[in-house]
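Interim report, section 4.2 (structural modelling).
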Amino acid sequence: MSTQDFFAANAERHLEEFLELLRIPSVSSDPAHIPDVARAGRWLADRLNAIGVPEVQLIDPDTHPVVEARWQVDPGKKTLLVYGHYDVQPVDPLALWISPPFEPTVRDGKIYARGAADMKSSMITFIQALEAIVAESGEPPLNLILLFEGEEESSGRVVTEYLTANPDRLACDAILNLDGAFPALDHPGFGVTLKGGMLVELHIKIGDTDMHSGKYGASVPNANQIMAKLAATFHTPDGAVAIAGFYDDVVPLSESDRAEIAASAAVMSPILEESGAFVEWGEPGYTAAERAGARPALDINGVWGGFTGEGAKTVTPAEAHMKLSCRMVPNQDGRRLYDLIVAHIEKHIPPGIKWEANYLGGAPAYSTPRDNWALQVAASTLADVYGVNPVFYRVGGSVPITIRFKDTLGVDTVTCGFTMPGSNIHAPNEWFRFEDYPKAQRTWVELLQAFGEA
Amino acid sequence: MSTQDFFAANAERHLEEFLELLRIPSVSSDPAHIPDVARAGRWLADRLNAIGVPEVQLIDPDTHPVVEARWQVDPGKKTLLVYGHYDVQPVDPLALWISPPFEPTVRDGKIYARGAADMKSSMITFIQALEAIVAESGEPPLNLILLFEGEEESSGRVVTEYLTANPDRLACDAILNLDGAFPALDHPGFGVTLKGGMLVELHIKIGDTDMHSGKYGASVPNANQIMAKLAATFHTPDGAVAIAGFYDDVVPLSESDRAEIAASAAVMSPILEESGAFVEWGEPGYTAAERAGARPALDINGVWGGFTGEGAKTVTPAEAHMKLSCRMVPNQDGRRLYDLIVAHIEKHIPPGIKWEANYLGGAPAYSTPRDNWALQVAASTLADVYGVNPVFYRVGGSVPITIRFKDTLGVDTVTCGFTMPGSNIHAPNEWFRFEDYPKAQRTWVELLQAFGEA
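Predicted structure of the assembly:
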């Protein structure tokens, strides 16, 4: 049966599989969801076994398992390593979801669910594409190693350990990362440079206990106030990061960098339209697209301190807390930025205040060489399927595994996926379009066949 | 039976009554606790009926009832209005309580519970003192109006409405407010000047939804960042409030003001020792005691925005929130300060950011004239009971009803109570000392008898 006929005959079951996977709340950063993450891993392994992949195993099956699936068809053929992740971001703020995040709901031609765009759609359509190829040809057109992890949105520990311990077993000629997105609605493209990221938690303490603000508020520091004064020093008034040395390791943008960014920006939605933000903001001297794709940033992801419940409680809080993260461009190092942040805090926090900063991990940026063979093959395939030349664009988000692949296997990664701009990844009401579902299936088939022929 | 013998014979039951009252979680600012507040009101009314008060009624019995109890013994005698509140502050952060806040627990000669110090101990010992007098003499030594409210820690709505509607019914010669505290351990005193207070909530919004910090963090504002920059402008670097006009209506401290504050500070614990704060902070040019008692302040009681849960979520948050309050000295007005705060926000918030500030209410400061007859009688009584001259001190906290009494009834208030410094009112692990319990009972008896003879 041709792959086309196979997709047509199995459309309903394929969609049901997608919904099943979306219903598993595989939030990797929350320890309470470990059993759900493990369940999602088993679910994928079961699917891969069912379509006839000869070797399927779960690594670390009880926590955040990596699903490794291997199909060696011919030692003379190339080997493609396919990477994806089946875990998802947390759902807060839950109140802003129109339908529950783990009850996939159809509205306006879209499936709304946490993970619909990032990236359960990519993963399940790829598996279904492989199933269709097997139905048509009995086996894939080249050797495959699938590596699907369950903690991309948190530490990536299991896959990193497995990668480090098994460089020979994971040797390959190209890497396809399914965690990609279109730069514009219906316009294909490849995220060829990914920012790195690093996470810090900061805790401030001004005393042993919360205090009555009437008795003490006029005479002792307020932890929220100290945190605000400190956080206000993180950026200059015009939007640059004010941590001394923050930009030291950044390679200045070349003319060709700026041209590439301008070309992708020409097809992409303006930041404001896409994000829902009311105004632009950020480092001066760069376009919004340059900032988003090629300049580092520091974000205060969360702040809390004092009384935040219903009603009023007039305390002078003893503690205030912050989660912050930096997005890094190539050549920046998370540990070094952490040291700079610590030095900045030491310099700016008033004497006598206790504080603690913790480095929660990070990974550097990664850039795919524009002349990489697999990138060229993939670009040509997408041009055929979509009838338009895909653009090379830069991604503000981080996929730490790409740099780890490069360091460990010496192989570059091509990132490709069907998430559309504005699909609310990492935010409430994440969605994936119905119409992109069969296109994704078909593209994966064409891509695998093109890699096989290359 | 003498009052002394009566207390001795009923000590165990009296203590059990205190514990019963402490077990009722009468948190007035949380709508979920309205039934508990109403239950505490009924409990007090039942006690007052049981000891023979002729007229007891609950005003607004289903929400935050005011318990009014009247005992007219002789139209030729003076009338004392006794005020107290039986509601309590919220308990957050619950995790810092060593024993549950509504399960009174004895440790080291103290009873730990929310409301133990603020102010269920004062209220129940006063009722028991009245019971002892009735046991000895059949009736109180002067006419009494007891007015116990259930929402002092939130809006004070019911008692204010009742007061406004019934100035003739509440006409009196003196007002005794049981919501007082000792300025130092075992050293009696009267809080003669209370700060006023006002509450504001502030909400900031930079876009329609939380955003992926990798995609947008470098190019759009971050609500936490905007809030921090704004909050950092509320105070000057050296600790004064930087809201333009904030101090305009403040009457400068006179030499006698400063002398009175210094005298009370001489017996009071240093702020740092008492509060558990690591360092002092606040408006320059004033002692910590002057700031605490006689200078206005602005506190950020709560802040929250973005992802504050377990783990990591790299969002650029769309919203940030703040609860702030000002403590006001005599001659300041909450509405006017609110207008100044709004003007300050308008001036300092970047263009294009949506925000909303809400005035949640407030009450001006209040000062008891130092020559008030009831204050003089009370000071002389406490000097006798404790063998040491009570000090007149200023209170950073707010008891809005005092100014309302003055405005409506034209009568000044004497505030007296047995809460000791460091007893964690409005904070976790609030306590009241066992040894102060019989002393409070005896003092109320002496005080009532002294008022009766005056």
